[in-house]
From TrEMBL:
This is Sulfotransferase family protein. Gene3D superfamilies: P-loop containing nucleotide triphosphate hydrolases. InterPro entries: P-loop_NTPase. It comes from the Bacteria.
Length: 355
């Protein structure tokens, strides 16, 4: 019977990819230490979409939440389930998830980050998920208290939806360290919560998750608007647009225009931050880090993607075309080398057989 289950529910853009990469890259090492990541990364993602009953669940998805629970229940040690999409679950869905994992001791792990950095990152992720809404409309809706898709992924609401399902000592809030902090600090905080010994996992420093510039992300948003029914979200869009345009082309572009929240909204962000911190101070949970790290630092004026000029858009589009040509040439060269290697191997085997 499973001893403990740590359900890491997000939020997106809080270093979740880095943490998950460490976990999955060391899966066998963790298993030998008594810590299981059940199923695969993709299967955990499918289980998340089943639990949340999202309309964008891939029609070819086969894994369900119950299948993931069954896999976890066969393990006698500790289990980690990690998917930042889980943070968007309703209270009823979170309650169902926690109940299904009984009689294991369920812990909920939430990661929080300051709003000044989170809001632009979340909107960018929306666009990379095929959204066509503008940055201004996104911010305006949030300022009016709308957009549950965003609010449900904030630390405060995730703790209410998920944390309320378990005793206070099993609720864990990890704060994202401020810019300039040691690279390993976030991992050390996460590992401490789930009981992973220091030095157990092999960790290679990864390049920072590159954000797109104002022109590049606006180019992608306009592309999404023109796609129509082509490359629908989720798998087709990820397989073609993200894999062949965003990752190898747009992320490698100039990205010179840093985008973010305008200073005209700084006071609102600061006031909202203090409200959130006060609420978290009153919420009984284990805080790993410091709630003060949720306060924005180094507020600077930036460019809104809505203000990108047509000339800047044209430059970004031309650079993207050049990038696509270079990327396509690289694919051709790699395919050619692979073909030559396979032919040489086949010839060598045939010669050896005749001898």
């Amino acid at each position: 019977m499973t001893r403990r289950v740590f359900v890491h529910v997000g939020a997106p853009k809080t270093g979740s990819t880095f943490v998950q990469n460490v976990l999955w890259n060391n899966r066998e090492t963790l298993k030998r230490a008594g810590i299981l990541l059940p199923a695969t990364r993709g299967q955990q993602d499918q289980a998340m979409t089943d639990l949340r009953e999202v309309p964008w669940r891939d029609k070819d998805a086969t894994w369900t939440w119950d299948m993931l629970v069954e896999k976890a229940a066969k393990w006698s040690g500790d289990v980690i389930i990690t998917n930042e999409g889980l943070g968007g679950a309703t209270p009823a869905q979170a309650a169902r998830a926690v109940r299904s994992l009984a009689p294991a001791e369920v812990h909920v792990v939430v990661v929080g980050r300051d709003l000044w950095r989170t809001l632009p990152s979340m909107w960018q992720e929306n666009v990379k998920s095929r959204s066509v809404g503008s940055f201004e409309n996104f911010l305006s809706a949030i300022q009016r208290g709308k957009n549950d898709a965003f609010w449900n992924h904030t630390a405060n609401r995730m703790l209410r939806h998920w944390g309320d399902q378990v005793p206070p000592e099993r609720r864990h809030l990890i704060t994202v360290p401020p810019p300039g902090s040691p690279y390993m600090l976030l991992w050390e905080r996460f590992a401490g919560v789930v009981g992973i010994p220091d030095g157990l996992c092999r960790i290679e420093q990864e390049p920072a998750n590159q954000s797109l510039g104002a022109a590049e992300i606006e180019l992608l948003r306009r592309l999404n608007r023109q796609l129509g029914d082509r490359f629908p979200y989720r798998t087709p869009y990820r397989r073609f647009v993200l894999r062949h345009l965003v990752g190898p082309v747009l992320k490698q572009g100039r990205n010179e225009l840093r985008f973010g929240i305008g200073m005209d909204r700084a006071e609102w962000i600061l006031d909202l931050t203090e409200e959130r911190i006060k609420e978290l101070e009153e919420y009984p949970c284990d805080v790993v880090g410091d709630l003060g790290e949720l306060r924005p630092v180094d507020l600077k004026e930036t460019v809104s993607p809505d203000d990108v000029t047509e000339a800047q858009m044209l430059d970004a589009a031309i650079e993207a075309l050049i990038g696509m040509i270079e990327y396509s040439d690289g694919l051709y060269e790699r395919a050619h080398r692979d073909l030559v290697t396979r032919i040489k191997g086949r010839v060598a085997r045939q010669v050896g057989f005749r001898r």
